[in-house]
Amino acid sequence: MNSPTDEQLLADYLEGQTEGFELLVRRHSPELYRFLSRFTGSPATAEDVVQETFLQIHLSAESFDGSRRFKPWLFTIAANKARDLLRSRNRRPEVPLDAQVGGTENEGQTFRDFLSDATQAPHASLEEEEEREFIRSILSKMPVHLKEVLILGYYHRFPYKEIAEVLGVPLGTVKSRLHAAVGHFGRAYEVAIRENV
Fold first, then answer.
1. Which domains are seen in the chain, by residue range?
2. What does the alpha-carbon distance between residue 112 and residue 94 come to, in Å, rounded to a whole number?
3. Candidate from 6-10, 27-31, 57-61, 188-192 with smallest mean pLDDT
4. How far apart are CA 134 and CA 128, in angstroms?
5. Which of 37, 50, 59, 38 is nearest to 81 (CA)?
6. Quick check: 121 pLDDT over 50?
7. Contact 119, 73 (CB under 8 A)
């Protein structure tokens, strides 16, 4: 038996079948989380934006154009929410993890104390993790318009046409941005390598 398309699941949801929406969430949450984690540079932020995205899908489900594909619409909403969040962060100061929670400056706990986890998670080799962190660091410093096209094109392998739909730009702009993004990343990678030698 063939599994229903995303578009059919959304249509089923609009007809009152809640399991259609649940399946959409299960089907797309992992990839959406990976995209947002790379895009925002923060796993915690990515989790929040995934939830906000599916809430927006729930609220806007009736406005979905059934002649279009669901996945680009989903990623468009997610990218917009992530951009809004990143812009708002630039306007509002964040509390550092070492800030004191209660007590005086020399007593009490920090936010980091609350977040610490004594259990050890399984890790890939240290070198692989260092390389991933190195790449995340370079991505985090890229201009947003280049970072998002690079993540959609190379990490998530979206076709150009779908990237254009997600970003709301012409196909030619996607191609030129992707070319610029690869060049920008390559130059930043070389500089970072020289600085770390």
1. 1-94 (1.10.1740.10), 125-197 (1.10.10.10)
2. 14
3. 188-192
4. 10
5. 50
6. no
7. no
- HEC per residue, 68-121: CCHHHHHHHHHHHHHHHHHHHHHHCCCCCCCCEECCCCCCCEEHHHHHCCCCCC
138 Cβ contact list (under 8 Å, min separation 6): 185, 188, 189, 192
How far apart are the C-alpha atoms of 138 and 146, rounded to whole Å?
Answer: 12
C-beta atoms surrounding 28 within 10 Å: 21
- pTM (2 d.p.): 0.66
Tokens encoding 132: 């991933």
The reported pLDDT for the residue numbered 117 is 45
